[in-house]
Design brief:
Shape: globular
Radius of gyration: 13 Å
Oligomer: single chain
Number of helices: 3
Bound molecules: zinc ion
Structural class: alpha+beta
Strand content: 15-25%
Largest sheet: 4 strands, mixed
Strand order of the largest sheet: 1-4-3-2
């Protein structure tokens, strides 16, 4: 995919692998602004088919983002925005650093 041997993967959820929900996470808006910005600049790998949110009826084209040893699902943004999901601390640091670098 991105040429990385062991990419760190986030946001690929299923009925048996559910996300961490944290309604009280204060960094959500700031993080989503950074994530939206970074995603807009990235090439999205689109796959055939549709994936469905495990929490609601939201569906979208199967998509993945890959950058600097990380891979994350195109649905991750939706989980964070709509279902109070909190990403791992390492992913938060990665995205906010990337946003700062790109956005200035
Ligand atoms: Zn949903």
């Amino acid at each position: 995919m991105a040429g990385e041997a062991n990419p760190k993967r986030e946001g690929f959820f299923s009925k048996t692998d559910l996300p961490t929900v944290d309604k009280k996470w204060k960094g959500r808006n700031k993080f989503l602004r950074a994530l939206n910005y970074v995603e807009k600049e990235l090439h999205r790998h689109l796959w055939r088919g549709i994936q469905c949110c495990t929490h609601c009826k939201h569906t979208q084209t199967i998509a993945e983002y890959a950058l600097d040893g990380w891979e994350w699902s195109g649905l991750y943004n939706h989980y964070i925005d709509q279902h109070d999901v909190r990403p791992s601390p390492a992913f938060i640091v990665f995205i906010e650093k990337e946003y700062a670098t790109r956005h200035g």
